[in-house]
Design a protein that fits this description.
Length: about 170
Amino acid sequence: MRLSQMAILNHLGVRIDLADDHAVRLVLERITPAHAGGLGTERLNGAMIAGMMDCAMSIAGILHFRGRTCGTVQLSIQFMKPVRCKTPVVECQAVRRATGVIFLEARLLEANGRCAVMATGIVGVTRVGAEDAAGDGRENWRAPAGVGARASPAGAPLVQVCEMTEG
């Protein structure tokens, strides 16, 4: 399975944009009733925003750790204003990498480029038991995504280091 085929992307209505070597971007392309904010307003639902932030960070972790299975360890979100934009973009970048974890920052940008939501998070490498995965848990993404086994340093280009494609 390619990263762009992850079920969560379809659920959130987003697509991956890896055009920038140093950032993972998720672009909201499909709005459903679940995206409606508090009391059914036109603002974007906070739970969907949190999901987009978490997803972007997880993908950045997978890319930095060369396809290893990753999970969110910590996620902190600051909602600075209601999101009314119909096509917001979440942009996520690595701040620092340590053994087995990566520290990340993400921003939700509206069409005018203004930041409406900020988040920080930590994503860690995980091992999924053989009964939960197709193998021993170390290769959940590596072979299907076409990435190698070595981790990349924080600040290194995500796409070039991982030789990852969108499709």
